[in-house]
Amino acid sequence: MSGRKLRIALLAGGVSAEREVSLKSAQQVYEALDKTRYEVLRYDPRDDLPRIVQEASDIDVALVILHGRLGEDGAIQGFLECLGIPYHGSGVLGSAVAMNKIVSKHLYQQAGLPVAPYIVADRKAPPSSLQELVDSLGLPLVVKPEHEGSSIGLSIVKKEGDLAGALEKAWRYDRRCLVEKFVAGTEITAGVLGNHDLEALPLVEIIPGEGYEFFDYDAKYTPGATREICPARVPEDIKRRAQDYALRAHRALCCRGYSRTDMIVSREGEIVVLETNTIPGMTETSLYPQAAAAAGISFSRLLDRLIELALEKD
């Protein structure tokens, strides 16, 4: 490949509820890629899978800037594996387990990571008593679908009477949903970079704006709806612990290349691990690029590094 530009397949769009976020991220990625080093070929898996198959032999590496189902869940990764196209980020297994909030919880617990108390609610075998569920976990509760990202389908339940509606909302996306105890505190996120030699990036503190109870879809993607502070304003011992948890979560879920693990620091100073993103938002002002910038890694250099990691042999 020396003497010519690397041919990068930039995959974005797709069919998930997070399509528009994916397209926005990919546009900024496209603009930041060094065109003196890369020839960038753009594909939308919603329409372009046959073209990817046809042009696979011309592609050196794929940047998968897809979010949600059929993009972040191992499906497109398996497709690329079948075509022999190297791609950045986690493989089929890591993508699939990180996307599944219930499986992730089990793996976090096996790795000794702290999680909020939870119950799995199955639409095919619904809880016999919502009162018992509330008695078991207490209020408020967080109800979320098994697979969706960007807080899609998520509800915060403050009254028992709202629980049935929250379950129905989550069940519209998945047969199973997660019902967990709401933990009040400071929202933080910790990025990890690398394949074998992992680097924990500086923490980002997330402050949802007025009118937003938590970092939901609108808070994530409405300009000015939230404020992020990097490095996060947390004590040094919490910083070290959160970075360690992010590294352990990355390994427990078999992630590769990079990941971002979201956590809550409770008012008592305890850290609760929420979930791990294998394809974090990749606009220049997204959380992961902010953390990389705080570590001295520019957005363009971050993309270079992700491409290098994609081409690195296991």
TrEMBL record:
Matches recorded under InterPro entries: ATP-grasp (IPR011761), ATP_grasp_subdomain_1 (IPR013815), D-Ala_lig_Van_CS (IPR000291), D_ala_D_ala (IPR005905), Dala_Dala_lig_C (IPR011095), Dala_Dala_lig_N (IPR011127), PreATP-grasp_dom_sf (IPR016185)
Top-level taxon in the UniProt lineage: Bacteria
Gene3D superfamilies (UniProt xref): 3.40.50.20, ATP-grasp fold, A domain, ATP-grasp fold, B domain
Gene Ontology molecular function, alphabetical: ATP binding; D-alanine-D-alanine ligase activity; metal ion binding
Subcellular location: Cytoplasm
Binding site for Mg(2+) 2: 275, 277
Domain ATP-grasp: 105-308
E.C. code: 6.3.2.4
Cofactor: Mg(2+); Mn(2+)
UniProt family annotation: Belongs to the D-alanine--D-alanine ligase family.
Protein's job: Cell wall formation.
Protein name: D-alanine--D-alanine ligase
Organism (species): Desulfacinum infernum DSM 9756
Lineage: Bacteria, Pseudomonadati, Thermodesulfobacteriota, Syntrophobacteria, Syntrophobacterales
